[in-house]
Amino acid sequence: MQTMELIAPCHFGMESVLKREIYDLGYDITSVDNGRVTFAGDAEAVARANIGLRSAERILLKAGEFKAASFDDLFEGTKAIPWADYLPADARFWVTKAASVRTRLFSPSDIQSIMKKAMVDSMAGHYRVSVFPEDGASYPVRVMIKDDIVTVALDTTGESLHKRGYRKYAVKAPIAENLAASLLMLTPWSAERILVDPFCGSGTFPIEAALMSANIAPGLYRSFTAETWNGLIPASVWKDIREEASEAADPDIETDIQGYDIDPAAIEAARNNARLAGVDKLIHFQVRDVSRLSHHGKYGFLIANPPYGERLLKDDPEIWQLYAALGERFKALDSWSMYLISAYEQTEAALGIKAAKNRKIYNGMLRSYFYQFPGPKPAGRRKERS
Description:
Elements: E1 4-9, H1 15-25, E2 28-33, E3 36-41, H2 43-52, E4 60-67, H3 71-79, E5 92-101, H4 108-127, E6 138-146, E7 149-155, H5 177-185, E8 195-197, H6 204-213, H7 235-248, E9 257-261, H8 264-277, E10 283-287, E11 301-304, H9 317-332, E12 337-342, H10 347-351, E13 357-363, E14 366-373
Parallel strand pairs: 5-6, 8-9, 8-11, 9-10, 11-12
Antiparallel strand pairs: 1-3, 1-4, 2-3, 4-7, 6-7, 12-14, 13-14
Helix pairs in contact: 2-7, 3-4, 5-6
C-alpha cells in the first residue's frame, strides 16, 4: 500500500504518550511538534490509528505543505496540491478549520475562502468542469499555518477521537476521554493493580482504565469520516482492522477498578456509561464521600480530576477541606500512589503533601497540573516507568 504522512494532534504535554502509542502500533515517527505527532503509514495505518489510539485527537492525512507569506501565495500553494488524487468529482469538500501562529495570514474566514477557491480551480483543471455537485462523501480539510509554513491535511476522523461513543450521560466538568487515557498512561498503573477514582463523575477515568485493561480499542464501536473514502481507504481495510482489534480484546479479564462520587446522579451516569462501553462488569461504582475513602489492598493507585472550585480561589474553604480530606485518606492507604489533575492553586498545601513531580497540562483551555505522588513498588516487580 502507498505510504502517506499522517498527523495526530493531541493535548499539549501528551506528545510523549502519543509517540509511544504510535510506536506500539508499529509505525515510524517523522516529527514531533507541540500538540502533534507526525508519522508514516499506509491506508491500514489510517484505520488502525483511528480505531486504536487512545491519546490522539484525530488523524489527519497530509496533502501538502508550502510557504505562504501572502494570500496570493496561499492560493497558488493550495492550487498546486494534486487534489484530484484525493477527491472524487462528487466530493463534498471544505476547509473546516484554519489555525495560524506567527504568520501574516491570521484571518480564518479569509484562509478558508481562498483555499476553497484554489481547490476548486485545481480540480476543475483535472475534471474539466467548473461546477462540482458536492453530493458525495465528505472530505473536510484542516490547515495549520506556523511561521508562514502552511500544512494542509484531510481529516480522516470527523468527530474528535475523544468521543468514544460511550459517554451519553455527562455531569459537570467531565474530563475528555483521550486526556484521561493519556494521564493513565503517564502513571505506572497496569491492569493487575488496584485503581480508585474518588471523584469519578461520569466515570471517565475508571472506564478508560477498564478499556485499557481489557485491551478494547477506544474507536472500535464508532465510525470515522474516511470510512466513506473508498478510493483512498477501501472498506475492506476498516473491516479487517476492526476484526483485528475485536480479536485482541479480553473483556473477561479480572480487575479491581472502583469509582466513587458523593453525587448519586453521577454514579448512575457512570454506571450507564460503563455499560455502553461494555466494561460495566469490570468496574465497581459506589456513592461515597471522599472522607470515607478506604481500601484493604496494598500498592493501589488513586487517580482523579477533583473539583477546582467555581472561582479557583486559594482561599475557598470548601475546596480546601475537600483536598485536605483526600490528603488524610491517602496517607492512611498503605503503600498507595496518587495522581491528580487540578487547576486548584493550593493543591499541595491543602493535601498536606508535596508532589514528587507536577506536569503542566491543558484541560481544554484551562491550565492545570498533573500532580504525581508515587508510592513504593510492589516487591519483586521489575522497574516500572514513572
